Amino acid sequence: MAVKAVLFDLDGTLIDTAPDFIVVLNRLLEEEGRRPLPEQPIRDTVSSGAKALVKLGFKLEESDSEFERLRLRLLELYSDHLAVYSKPFNGIELLLEQLTKHKLHWGIATNKPEVYTTPLLQQLQLSPASVICPDHVQERKPHPESLLLAGKQLNCSPTEMIYIGDHQRDIECGRRAGAITITARYGYIEENDNPDHWQADHIVDCANELWPIIKTYL
């Protein structure tokens, strides 16, 4: 069955958002009288969201009385710093041109809330045919609901999709939906994680490797 759509995870797959998260987490640490963290641990943690960044920066658990205050302040800082340094990964813009040229829909299925996703895409002038955020579904990834809803919006079956992500939950979501899956090893993968164990159909080390794989399914 020929592929009709290509779906991306957002942070760490389509867009390199880590540079802005590095700034805002270290700004929050500075506000709280803490030393800044080096870039790499923050970059590795971005795909796991704001809670994981607070845990990384402050060595706290969600049950700690200060945790929610710090999480909300981190998100407040991020709202003002969404797309200062963030940009599509090298090779992504050319890939999107190829998808458009071959009349393939492309979209996003992310665990990033709509309040941050929409302005980020607007500022980067990206116009996907479908954007699925946690606000639009009952169950977040790794549940397959995001891809099932995207399929309805794009008028295709998940089995006619390729889903690309940099986290195990992305690959699990894609596999459970019946999509072809590609691991973006260039993304935000934690040090103790091994993408080779995620059972994706393909693994790439840079975005330039995506199109040669995608075109084999046309």
Radius of gyration: 17 Å
Helical percentage:
40-55%
* CATH architecture assignment name of the largest domain: 3-Layer(aba) Sandwich
**N-to-C span:** 9 Å
Helix and strand string, N-terminal first?
EEHHHHEHEHEHEHEEH
Q: Count every beta strand, where a strand is a DSSP E run of 2 or more residues.
A: 8
Derived from helix and strand composition plus strand pairing, the structural class reads alpha/beta
What is the domain total for the residues? 2
Helix count equals 9
What oligomeric state best describes the polypeptide chains here? Answer: single chain
CATH fold call of the largest domain: Rossmann fold
CATH class of the largest domain: Alpha Beta
Please describe the structure with a list of short key phrases separated by commas or semicolons.
8 strands; six-stranded parallel sheet; 41% helix; single chain; 218 residues
Explain what the structure shows.
With about 220 residues, the protein is an alpha/beta fold. It has two domains: about 5-15 and about 85-215, Rossmann fold (3-Layer(aba) Sandwich); about 20-80. Helices cover about 40% and strands about 15% of the residues. The strands form two sheets. Strands 5-4-1-6-7-8 form a six-stranded parallel beta sheet. A two-stranded antiparallel sheet has the order 2-3. Helix 6 (about 115-125) links the parallel strand 4 and strand 5. The longest helix has 14 residues, at about 20-30.
In short:
This protein is an alpha/beta fold. 41% of the residues are buried.
List the helices and strands and how they pair.
Layout: E1 5-8, E2 15-16, H1 18-31, H2 39-45, H3 49-58, H4 67-79, E3 87-88, H5 92-101, E4 105-109, H6 114-123, E5 130-132, H7 145-154, E6 161-165, H8 168-177, E7 180-184, E8 202-204, H9 210-214
Parallel strand pairs: 1-4, 1-6, 4-5, 6-7, 7-8
Antiparallel strand pairs: 2-3
Helix pairs in contact: 1-4, 3-4
